[in-house]
């Protein structure tokens, strides 16, 4: 059974940092491209970043470049999202999602989702 489990969310002050984790299990080796999305109340789910199955390629939406970094530890089957210089507008539920091999930023391209982790940025 394939599964994604996010962790690492929480409350942080503006300018702070958080590192989210996405633990993947049950996938064939070399299979899942994994992306991070987020969804704020009343807003559509939006892509942040995606990393290839090997971890040697990653992509970011423009709003994430420079502040967010995606990485992958294949030995631990875990993908991370390091978030720096957080702003109140980064407040959302953050999800990781998996699909076969190739990164896309469209959420409907992903068929495996984690349960989400809440990130709140507030003073």
End-to-end Cα distance = 40 Å
> What oligomerization state is this entry in?
single chain
- Class derived from helix and strand content: mainly beta
Number of strands: 11
Strand content: over 45%
List unreliable stretches of 5+ residues. none
Helix-strand topology string: EEEEEEEEEEE
Tell me about the biggest sheet? 7 strands, mixed
Mean pLDDT: 95
Individual helix count: 0
* Helix fraction bin: under 10%
**Cα shape:** globular
- Using only CA atoms, what is the Rg? 13 Å
Which tags fit this structure?
123 residues; mainly beta
Architecture blueprint of SSEs:
Blueprint: E1 3-7, E2 10-12, E3 18-25, E4 32-39, E5 46-51, E6 58-60, E7 68-73, E8 78-83, E9 92-100, E10 112-113, E11 117-121
Parallel strand pairs: 2-11
Antiparallel strand pairs: 1-3, 3-8, 4-5, 4-9, 5-6, 7-8, 9-10, 9-11
Structural account:
- With 123 residues, the chain is mainly beta.
- The protein is 0% helix and 50% strand.
- The protein contains no helices and eleven strands.
- The protein has strands at 3-7, 10-12, 18-25, 32-39, 46-51, 58-60, 68-73, 78-83, 92-100, 112-113, 117-121.
- The strands form two sheets. Strands 2, 4, 5, 6, 9, 10 and 11 form a seven-stranded mixed β-sheet that branches.
- Strand 4 (32-39) and strand 5 form a beta hairpin.
- It is globular.
- The model has no long low-confidence stretch (mean pLDDT 95).
How do you describe this structure in short?
The chain is mostly beta strands. Helix content is 0%, strand content 50%. The chain is built from no helices and 11 strands.
């Amino acid at each position: 059974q394939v599964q994604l489990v996010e962790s690492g969310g929480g409350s942080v002050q503006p300018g702070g940092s958080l590192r989210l984790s996405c633990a993947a299990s049950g996938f064939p080796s070399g299979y899942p491209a994994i992306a991070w999305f987020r969804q704020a109340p009343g807003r559509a789910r939006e892509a942040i970043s995606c990393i290839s199955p090997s971890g040697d390629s990653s992509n970011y939406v423009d709003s994430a470049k420079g502040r967010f970094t995606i990485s992958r530890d294949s030995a631990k089957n875990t993908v991370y999202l390091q978030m720096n210089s957080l702003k109140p507008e980064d407040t959302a539920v953050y999800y990781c999602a998996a699909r076969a091999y190739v990164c896309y930023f469209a959420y409907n391209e992903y068929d495996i989702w984690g349960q989400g982790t809440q990130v709140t940025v507030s003073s």
